[in-house]
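Hi R.,

Here's the chain you asked about this morning:
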Amino acid sequence: MSTNWDQQYHDGETPWDKGAPSPPLLEWLDLHPAEMQGRVFVPGCGLGHDVRVIAARPGIDAVIGFDLSPKAVALARDFPASGGETYVAGDLFALPDAYRGSCDWVWEHTCFCAISPSLRDAYVEAVSSVLKPGGQFLGVFYLDPYDEEHQPGDGPPHGSTLEELIDRFTGRGGFTLVESCLPTRAYPGREGLEWILRLVRN
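And the predicted structure, written out as tokens:
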């Protein structure tokens, strides 16, 4: 991976961090107040804004915020805890065996678009591996992150299509699609550019 994420956190150059939980996550939790339960894994958690909002929900036993950057993890731990959350620095593509089949849910936000597209199948395999059979994957995907500053091929962020996502997760990845929708809440500037997918591990 070409981006030195840890250095960017050390330098405070984190434009992807909006200082608040993902609006599509907040919307989904409001619409499904009791569905996310048990243990939740959050890859690429950054400063943990999504981790903490999930950890505060009833029925959540634990949330593991996982990030490649030790600095991001250290900064996340500086925030007051909201529930049973923990933060771990590590490589998503080299997860310890202890993570396998250990979680009921995975929440995805900005990890998939940050990795090289060449690693996307490995990403699907990694998040599938942490889920129990029948575990659920919920993600908001940044379909079109391109503007005057970011063009296709020069990410991160890297865009994707809905067709690609469904093929990677269901066609090859061993998931069944159960929900696909356009969120109505978004960070300013991302309106209409993100998509929610909810899938079940077969």
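The longest strand covers residues 131-142.

Let me know if you need anything else.
M.
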